[in-house]
Amino acid sequence: CLRGESIHVEERRSANEEKFSCLMERIRNCSLYGAICRVALCPLADTKFTPRYKMEATFSLPVSKLRAFVKVRKEIERCYQLIHRLGRGVIYIGSARPQPDHPHYIQSHELSRRVANLLGCTTWTGAGPGLMDAVTRGALEAGKSVGGFKIEKEAGQWTSAGSHPYLPPDTYLTCRFFSARKHGFVDAAVRNNSSDRTAVIALPGGIGTLDEMFEILSLIQLQRIGSQLPIPVLLMNYDAYYSKLLDFLGDIEHWGNLAKGEVESLWKVFENNQEALAYLARFYDLPSSKERAEEHETGIS
Q1: Which of 64, 79, 134, 187 is the most buried (most CB within 10 A)?
Q2: Quick one: 290 and 164 in the same domain?
Q3: What is the pTM of this model?
Q4: Mean pLDDT across the chain
């Protein structure tokens, strides 16, 4: 009986090893795996995968990690495909909590409508409630395309299924992985040529907004994005919302952990929408934001 059980265990182990080899072969052939190897300066042909765990009782752990890798890759590819269809543009990050009667909701709604008219590009959001909803509605009122990257289990989400109440299903994705969602946001803001009009606009928000905002600033600081074609980054300091954060960054500079003027070189801070619109008009050498907005509003009416 024991001998039979031992043979059965060996057969299962052999089957698992075969599955592992097949899975690794698929991953080695995928484009993302190759990109990771290139970033690490390791020739793909010389790269050998060494499992962190022995292929015994714990074998299922590395397999689960590899499966997660494949899922993330597929989700990132879906984000890229959506951007390819809708086009790059302005990405907005902000709180999912403010209601339609909140002053920041009203200001964000107006800003997205006027920016969409000014730049004429796709508006990208987290496709959620709060300020993301304000931005979505503003861009739609301007008659421009809107795309979104939702995330599962977000604070204040509308339904457990992650569907959007009014956006067409083919204009947004519900992401399971934050890394894929961030890939989407960054790629939507990167300018491929001088005719691309993109921007990153940070609205008032909480931990998630700060996370996304500082990750983008880090990528710009390290010249991973925006090194050849700069990307305008705007921080909307409505009602002095971010003033204490700016003071804190000033303290960091004072203690020598940031170079003098380093933060100011990464973004521009604005107290109101008119200042932000004027800056974008100058950045892209467009007619004044006021004239452009009035022209579009007249055409719509």
Answers
A1: 134
A2: yes
A3: 0.77
A4: 84
